[in-house]
């Protein structure tokens, strides 16, 4: 194909110099063969039968050589053009060698293209990735392959070995996915590092208190992320309730004890308890050293605002939306996970202790509470990424990359979460989004969809049916030059509908999609279209590969067990443990008070 400045350049083909040259060459070969046959017969007295027999032998030998050479010469091209691609068989021993070599290069094996491993390096992973595919296309196989390799990897080498901290966010709540990973986690010697956060299984779930303040955090940050996770309507009452919630948390934080969502609910409803907490917080502020003047002024303003609300007869009515959202977290199993004061798990602990956190959230069970909890975790994830971004001098000391996988996370997404993509790379964090289609992101907003889909430098596309998703990948893959050939034909006769070529054709240079639409929508299960940033090429690298399937082992003689968290000897020793003092409120909210009193008695 010849290149032209004008993409619409058109050429006409007929009988030209090339065809004339071929005809002369054929005529020359015929003449040479005729002369050789004449000399062999007349000079060397070789009979015609012998010449025919020799010619047949030569033709057979030449044909066999040509077929063999042509097969190997065009094998790679035909294999690349074959559709669908034939599955590549990689011996298990060779596959394990590829994985070990990739691990030494700080990379993992995504799959195989023409039996050659395709690596995904940590450097590229830090620029984020997105995995798209319809149900049954093989997304779970790809995610499991990535997770298993990260579980077994050791970063930093022998002088300073580290394990990869991992956060796996399973938005489907599929218990079978975790079970398929348990043996590999145990085989890697990391079962003691596994933490599960599942509100439907409190007996094995870690404890997560969204209002817990780790060292270095502020109550404003956690109050803001907790309130935003409620998803209240964006109106006047939302800002009024946000201000009220922040004031309550400020008072309880200055009171000096650990708090949870139940404590906030008690002070929001019981004026007497709130006044006691205000008095206790004021005493601590006046008698503790190191309290800044501005902190005292801010506390005084919050107290003044709360005291003024006491005079409003509609105080509880105006904050009823906030109360309703807090009441959602009083669901029995969920409150066990979010209402604890001790043995709490934070995302900073996951990274500092190189843990594996598996979050399983099933929105079909208690959807309001589970959705709010998922948003809290994503908000906390954004906060953690922001803090690490400001601490990169410490992070450059050979610490491993943090692997975060968000599978079907769109029910818990919120508009500002897209900002995590701006700091994740600088925070040494890899984020992989897994979705069925990009249209799911529009449930948040069109801008959120654009921000999430435009940021990743690695796009993995499995079989999809959604038209927008297919076009998204085609646009990302860009267009390539191609030729469009138009042949001239003529009808054989006046009474015939058959046509024959005239020998003339028009060739037009056009631009067409690198990946045809039918190859995206009819992609076989387990195969994947890949666009990956390549700094050496200066452009995304396109590959059509077979996703690697991590070996699955589940021996009958060993079944990994997730042990329940160890409860402290003195439970809630440092907690606020607030209870209703107003007898009328205690009777009105008998279900809440009764449950908490039973917990305290136990």
Describe this structure as you would to a colleague:
By secondary structure, this protein is α/β, with parallel strands linked by helices. Among the domains are: 24-81; 209-344 and 568-602, no CATH class. Helices cover 46% and strands 16% of the residues. It contains 23 helices and 16 strands. It has helices spanning 17-42, 48-81, 92-104, 122-125, 139-152, 175-187, 219-228, 236-254, 261-269, 271-287, 293-310, 315-318, 320-328, 332-338, 347-352, 367-389, 392-395, 420-424, 446-454, 467-477, 517-521, 583-588, 590-601, and strands spanning 10-13, 107-113, 116-121, 129-132, 154-155, 162-163, 166-170, 194-197, 356-360, 402-407, 429-435, 458-461, 479-491, 499-513, 527-532, 541-547. The strands form 3 sheets. The protein has an 11-stranded mixed sheet, sandwiched between helices. Strand 15 and strand 16 (541-547) form a beta hairpin. Helix 7 (219-228) runs antiparallel to helix 16 (367-389), helix 8 (236-254) crosses helix 10 (271-287) and helix 9 (261-269) packs across helix 10 (271-287). The chain is elongated and about 130 Å long. The chain starts with 9 loop residues before the first strand and ends with a helix. The model is unreliable at 1-14 and 596-602 (pLDDT under 50).
Notable characteristics:
eleven-stranded mixed sheet; 46% helix; disordered C terminus; 602 residues; 23 helices; disordered N terminus; 16 strands; three-stranded antiparallel sheet; single chain; alpha/beta
């Amino acid at each position: 194909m010849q290149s032209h400045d004008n993409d619409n350049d058109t050429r006409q083909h007929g009988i030209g110099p090339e065809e004339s040259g071929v005809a002369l060459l054929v005529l020359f070969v015929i003449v040479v063969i005729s002369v050789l046959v004449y000399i062999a017969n007349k000079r060397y007295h070789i009979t015609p039968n012998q010449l025919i027999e020799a010619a047949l032998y030569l033709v057979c030998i030449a044909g066999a050589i040509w077929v063999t050479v042509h097969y190997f010469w065009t094998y790679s091209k035909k294999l690349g053009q074959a559709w669908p691609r034939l599955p590549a068989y990689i011996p298990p021993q060779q596959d394990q060698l590829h994985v070990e070599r990739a691990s030494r290069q700080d990379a993992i094996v995504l799959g195989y293209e023409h039996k050659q491993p395709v690596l995904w390096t940590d450097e590229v992973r830090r620029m984020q990735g997105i995995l798209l595919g319809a149900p049954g296309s093989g997304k779970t196989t790809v995610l499991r392959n990535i997770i298993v390799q990260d579980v077994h990897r050791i970063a930093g080498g022998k002088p300073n070995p580290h394990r990869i901290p991992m956060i796996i966010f399973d938005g489907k709540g599929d218990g079978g996915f975790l079970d398929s990973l348990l043996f590999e986690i145990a085989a890697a010697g990391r079962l003691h590092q596994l933490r599960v956060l599942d509100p439907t299984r409190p007996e094995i779930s870690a404890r997560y208190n969204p209002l817990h303040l780790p060292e270095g955090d502020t109550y404003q940050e956690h109050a803001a992320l907790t309130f935003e996770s409620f998803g209240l309507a964006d109106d006047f009452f939302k800002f009024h309730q946000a201000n009220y919630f922040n004031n309550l948390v400020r008072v309880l934080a200055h009171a000096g004890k650990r708090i949870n969502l139940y404590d906030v609910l008690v002070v929001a409803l019981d004026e007497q308890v709130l006044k006691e907490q205000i008095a206790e917080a004021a005493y601590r502020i006046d008698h503790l050293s190191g309290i800044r003047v501005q902190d005292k002024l801010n506390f005084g303003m919050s107290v003044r605002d709360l005291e003024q609300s006491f005079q409003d007869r509609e105080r509880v009515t105006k904050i009823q939306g906030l109360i309703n959202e807090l009441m959602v977290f009083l669901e029995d199993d969920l409150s066990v996970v979010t209402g604890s004061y001790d043995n709490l798990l934070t995302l900073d602990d996951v990274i500092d202790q190189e843990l594996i956190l598996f979050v399983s959230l099933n929105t079909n069970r208690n959807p309001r509470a589970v959705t709010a909890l998922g948003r809290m975790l994503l908000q906390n994830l954004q906060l953690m990424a922001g803090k690490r971004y400001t601490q990169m001098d410490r992070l450059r000391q050979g610490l491993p990359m943090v692997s975060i996988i968000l599978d079907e996370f769109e029910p818990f997404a919120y508009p500002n979460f897209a900002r995590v993509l701006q700091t994740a790379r600088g925070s040494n964090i890899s984020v992989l989004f897994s979705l069925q289609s990009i249209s799911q992101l529009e449930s948040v907003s069109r801008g959120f969809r654009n921000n999430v889909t435009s940021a990743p430098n690695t796009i993995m596309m499995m079989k999809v049916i959604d038209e927008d998703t297919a076009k998204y990948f085609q646009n990302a893959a860009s267009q390539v030059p191609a030729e469009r050939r138009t042949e001239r034909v003529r009808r054989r006769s006046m009474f015939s509908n058959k046509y024959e070529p005239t020998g003339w054709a028009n060739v037009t240079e056009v631009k067409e999609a690198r990946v045809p639409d039918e190859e995206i929508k009819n992609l076989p299960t387990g195969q994947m279209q890949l666009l990956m940033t390549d700094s050496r090429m200066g452009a995304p690298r396109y590959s059509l590969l077979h996703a690697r399937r991590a070996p699955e082992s589940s021996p009958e003689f060993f079944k990994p067990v997730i042990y329940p968290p160890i409860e402290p000897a003195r439970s809630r020793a440092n907690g606020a443990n607030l209870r209703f003092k107003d007898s009328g409120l205690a009777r009105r909210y008998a279900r809440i008070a009764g449950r908490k009193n039973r917990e305290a008695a136990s």
